Automatic annotation (TrEMBL):
Keywords: Activator, DNA-binding, Transcription, Transcription regulation. PROSITE patterns: CNMP_BINDING_3, HTH_CRP_2. Residues 119-184 form the HTH crp-type domain. Residues 1-88 form the Cyclic nucleotide-binding domain. The keyword Transcription applies. SMART domains: HTH_CRP (SM00419). This is Crp/Fnr family transcriptional regulator. It comes from Planococcus notacanthi. The keyword Disulfide bond does not apply. CDD domains: CAP_ED (cd00038). Pfam families: cNMP_binding, HTH_Crp_2.
C-alpha cells in the first residue's frame, strides 16, 4: 500500500483506461463522472473519506467505467490489484465489505440518474456549486459548457440560471470565476444536496 497526495484539479482515473490499483480516499473530496458516447459528461457522485475507487473494476477486471477528479487537495491509499488478489481474494470479510461498497455505489448511481432526470436545473446547479466549493467559495467558470454537461443541461439554460442566482445575490460571476455569496440560499434551493 502507498499513501499518495493529490492536488485540486488532478485526474486520478480516466474512463476507459486500465487501472492496476484500488484507492481508499482518506482525506479530501473526489468527483466521479462519466462521459457519454456523444461527449457529454455527467456527474455521478462526490466521494468523501473512506470511500473506495476502483473496486468495481477490480472485481470485473474491466477498464475504468468512470473518471475520477480531485475537488479538494486529497490523500489516497493506493493498493495494487495484484496484492489484493494474492492476499485477499478468498477472505470472506473483505469480499463482504466489497459487496457492500459496490451495492452502495449502484444505489447512489441510480439516485444520481434520477436526480438528473427529475430535478430542475436550478436545483442541480445549486447542488453542484455547493459540492464544488466545500472549502473555498470560488469556482473556475472558464468552461461553462463542461458545467452544463456535468449537470445535464444546455449552455444557454445554465447561463439563464446563473443570471437568476446572481440577481438573487447568491453568487457573482466575474473574470472567469463564480463566487458563492450565500450558501444558505443555495442549500435551500438544492434541498437535499444529492451530489454528495
Amino acid at each position: 500500500m502507498q499513501l499518495e497526495n493529490l492536488a485540486l484539479g488532478d485526474c486520478l482515473l480516466s474512463q476507459g483506461d486500465i487501472s492496476q490499483s484500488l484507492y481508499l480516499l482518506v482525506e479530501g473530496k473526489l468527483k466521479i463522472s462519466m462521459l457519454s458516447p456523444e461527449g457529454k459528461r455527467l456527474i455521478l457522485a462526490f466521494k468523501t473519506p473512506f470511500d473506495l475507487v476502483g473496486d468495481i473494476e477490480y472485481i470485473q477486471q474491466c477498464p475504468l467505467i468512470n473518471t475520477v477528479e480531485v475537488v479538494t487537495d486529497s490523500r489516497v491509499i493506493r493498493i495494487p490489484y495484484e496484492v489484493l488478489r494474492k492476499e485477499m481474494e478468498n477472505h470472506v470479510p473483505w469480499l463482504q465489505f466489497l459487496l457492500g461498497t459496490i451495492t452502495q455505489k449502484f444505489k447512489m448511481k441510480s439516485q444520481a440518474m434520477n436526480f438528473n432526470l427529475f430535478y430542475p436545473v436550478d436545483v442541480r446547479l445549486a447542488s453542484y456549486l455547493l459540492s464544488m466549493t466545500p472549502k473555498q467559495p470560488q469556482l473556475d467558470s472558464a468552461s461553462l459548457i463542461d458545467i452544463a454537461d456535468l449537470i445535464g443541461t444546455s449552455y444557454r439554460h445554465l447561463n439563464r440560471v446563473l443570471q437568476q442566482f446572481e440577481k438573487a445575490g447568491w453568487i457573482t460571476k466575474k473574470r472567469g470565476k463564480i463566487t458563492v455569496l450565500d450558501r444558505s440560499s443555495l442549500l435551500a434551493e438544492a434541498g437535499q444536496n444529492i451530489y454528495e
